[in-house]
Structures are given as C-alpha cells and as structure tokens.
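Hi F.,

I've been meaning to write this up properly since the lab meeting, where we talked about keeping a consistent format for the predictions we share between groups. The idea is simple: the sequence comes first, exactly as it goes in, then the structure tokens exactly as they come out, then a line or two of notes. No screenshots and no reformatting. I'm using this chain as the first example so we have something concrete to point to.
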Amino acid sequence: MKEAIYRHDDKELQKIPQINMLGMTEILDASQRSLEPHYNKGIEICILFKGRFEWRIEETSFLLYPNDCTVTLPWQKHGGVNGIMNAGKLMWLILTPEYFNRDGKMKLGKWSSIPAEEQIQIGKKLCQTEKPYFAADEYLKSLFFEIFSEIQSHRECHSWRINRLLDELLFHVTRKLINSPLKRKKSFDLTQLEFQIKADLQHKWTLSDLERITGYGKSRLSSIIRENTGVSPITYLTLLRLGKAKELLLKTDLSITDIAFECGFNSSQRFSTVFKKNIGKTPSEFRQTAL
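Output, unedited:
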C-alpha cells in the first residue's frame, strides 16, 4: 500500500468537494506521527489493514485490530489515545454532507442519487448506532480502492462514477454498522483512570481496585502503567496523591494533617515522610518556600 493523501483543496478533489479528505498510509514509527483529539467537517470512515490501534471517540477508547472499520460523525471528537497514531496500515475517507445534525437529519447534496427520505434514514441510523466500529468486508475495501483509482486516473466522467461509489460506500457502511456483532475491548485509558482515582483519593487504592476498573489482569496492568508512566502502579498512586497534596498546600490553608487524610495517607507523619522522600522537602517547607 503506497501512501497517498488528498485534501479538499488539492486539485484532484476540486470537482468532488464532498470529499474533505481521502488517504492511505503506513506508519512504521508511532512516535513520528501525532494524532491529537479533533473534529472533522464530515463523516470519517477508516479501515485498519495492519497493526493495533488505540482509538478514542469522545470519552471512550477502543482497541482496534486489522480489518476493523470505524465511523465518526462531525460532532464526535476523536483521535489516538495519548495523542499518537499507532504503527500500522490504514485507509480513510471524510465525506462532507451538505447538512447533518445530531438528530440524524442529513442532506448529502446534489451529487448524491440517494432519495432524500433515504438520506434522512441513513443519518438517523448513523446517529443511533451503539458501536462506532464493525468488521470491514472485501466489498467495502474494493469500494475504497475504486474511489482511489478513479481519483488518480482522471478518466472521463470520473466525477459521476465517484459519486455513485460514495453513495454505495455510505449505504454499505451504514448497513454494516447497525448489524455488526463485533465487540472490541475498551482501550486502557490512563487519563480516565487518573480521573477516577483523583475523585476519591481518600480511598485506600490497591492494585486489585485498578484491575477491577480497567479490566486488565495485575501483570498486564503493571506493564501498561510502567510503559505509560515509567513507574510501578504503587508509585503511580503515590505520585497522584502527592500531586494533589502539593495543590492543596499551595492553594488552601488546610492543616498538614487535614491534607494528609484528604490525600489518602494514614497519618501526617507518614505523609511527611513520603512527601520529603519524593519532593525533597517536608510539606511545611514546601508551603513556606512557595509563599
């Protein structure tokens, strides 16, 4: 698969303005390709050919595998977990309707031959689907490759042909999406895990608690936390407690004892010992130097 990316202002798409972007690429090094959470101006359809992607849509993250196809709508914020695009091969298309809202009312534009009432039905089904992914079949892949071929060929009447392919692509994707039995495990989301821990730092968090929240076994969970933070799960929990403690020391007049219990330490003495070991100062010294 060769890399080819066409954007709405490229000459290849001048006669096909309903395509906001069309691309195929292979990423060999995830550290070289960022993919921060973002919105599109249209409906994005993406097929993963190779690799394992950690994909985030709104507040939910998914693990995606080869032949998985994802669909995101214009108002859905999405991107790579941790802001990166994982290594692998993928192909995507962003189709921009003339009008599309959260109620499912959709008008594709004059280019489409799908009846107006059917366009609305497709829009509603896209909005109502519970899962934003399904297993791509060979027919879906062939539609993508035919669209690429037409755009690159500049053959006579290629715009008309592309319009018909786009109609079929959208219809096929919608049907596959609403009938898909595919179930993918939610991806490990460190941000969401931190949110849950910080919401109740007084709780005596254990590795078993984190295992229950994430759905990962202790061994795998420990490896993932080390990969993402560079420290063990216990140290990770301690650092979250200390982060909150520093915030309270700087922004409130709470006593050292109150802050210790607020952040989940058994005693102010234990809190002071752990704080100095990691920060290099006692809580009182930290507060004084910050004044």
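Notes:
The first strand starts at residue 4 and ends at 7.
The chain is about 45% helix and 20% strand.

If this format works for you, I'll send the rest the same way.

G.
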